[in-house]
Design a protein that fits this description.
heterodimer, A: about 150 residues, alpha+beta, Translation Initiation Factor IF3, three-stranded antiparallel β-sheet, about 50% helix, about 25% strand, B: about 100 residues
């Protein structure tokens, strides 16, 4: 009984705080994406032809985002039946977009105009597998070459 | 020292090639950060401590790679790649590798 109460409290806390955090994060992502729209990010390996002399610099951005208790629970249920894990989808989407944004922002600071050859790498960071409740968090790093004239 | 993940440097040519250079570092988090991360796991959100830790470690791996390139006499590292792997529980390895060259 006592355990159930704790569990439900955690679920409610996770749901409310998790939703607030996610909504706030998406708002900030969309706002910053609008602001950095002028800087193209490409996975092409070659410098655009109109640029002849330029400086290159490696730029990167990374972020670690944790899943909340409610999402983890829902994902656990979902994995019984199979199907899309929406709660994880939004987590990874947020992490990727955030990492790319941070890379863009650090490139903007150096006065770059375009980032080419962008790679995005994802790694899961878990605390310890000896306990079942390992930390469900994901690290995304985005890196590329900033081109400035 | 030029570090880039391109295969060539625009406007410059590669005159010498020294082969693969690499740098790695393995880091563990300390208990305080782990505890905070455990709390965050309930509420969700960014783990700022881990973000910092990993970007610091990645920088260190890059620095080691650059050191190796310098000792070879190179002035650029091209086609740099990063990778992350969790070796044992609670620790992550960050690895950077690239090709050391001389460009002019």
């Amino acid at each position: 009984m006592y355990e159930l109460l704790i569990f439900l409290t955690l679920l409610v806390l996770g749901y409310s705080f998790g939703q607030i955090a996610e909504r706030r994060h998406y708002r900030s992502i969309i706002e910053r994406e609008q602001r950095t729209l002028g800087m193209p990010v490409m996975t092409l390996k070659t410098v655009p032809q109109q640029i002849t002399r330029c400086n290159t610099q490696l730029v990167s951005g990374n972020v670690v985002i944790s899943i909340d208790f409610f999402k983890k629970f829902v994902a656990g249920l979902r994995s019984l039946f199979g199907g899309r894990l929406k709660s994880y989808e939004s987590l990874l989407d947020r992490a990727r977009r955030e990492a790319v944004l941070r890379m863009k922002e650090s490139a903007l600071e150096t006065g770059a105009m375009v980032i080419i050859n962008v790679r995005i790498e994802t790694a899961s960071i878990s605390k310890n597998s000896s306990r079942n409740n390992a930390i469900g968090s994901v690290e995304v790093v985005a890196y590329g070459t900033a081109i400035s004239v | 020292m030029i570090v880039s993940n391109l295969e060539t440097i625009p406007g410059k040519s590669i005159t010498r090639h020294y082969g693969l250079v690499q740098g790695n570092t393995i880091r563990a988090k300390h208990v305080g950060r782990d505890f905070m991360a455990g709390l965050k796991n309930i509420f969700g959100g960014e783990l700022k401590g881990y973000t910092e830790l990993l970007s610091e470690s990645r920088q260190e791996a890059t620095d080691r790679m650059i050191q190796q390139a310098q000792s070879l006499g190179a002035n650029a590292v091209l086609n740099v790649r990063y990778s992350t792997s969790s070796i044992t529980q609670g620790a992550a390895e960050l690895y950077a590798y690239g090709t050391a060259v001389t460009v002019e």
